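Box 3.1 A note on notation
Throughout this textbook, protein chains are presented in two layers. The first layer is the amino acid sequence; the second is a token string describing backbone geometry. Keep the layers aligned when reading.
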Amino acid sequence: MATYIIMSELRPEALSDPKDFKRLAANVSDKIKAECPGVKWKDSYTLLGEYDVLDIVESEDPKQVEKAAMIIRAYGYEKTKTFAATQWKEFLDTL
């Protein structure tokens, strides 16, 4: 299964209170589970800097990952960047 990194930046008007982030995250998660069954969530991190959230997902279908990123963007994120990722050891083994 391929690994992908999705980095997201919240629009300033997406939340009126930081506590609203829990509701937003739950809505996004529910929507992705319903519409992108081929995407398996591995982990999420908050970030300091240009992006607010980093999600690590796995999928056999890159189109499912694209759809998940669009759902994230539609729910209050200004932009997302998605990267295909290979574990370091796996990469070294291919050399």
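Residues 20-35 form the longest helix (16 residues). Helices lie at 20-35, 62-74, 88-93.
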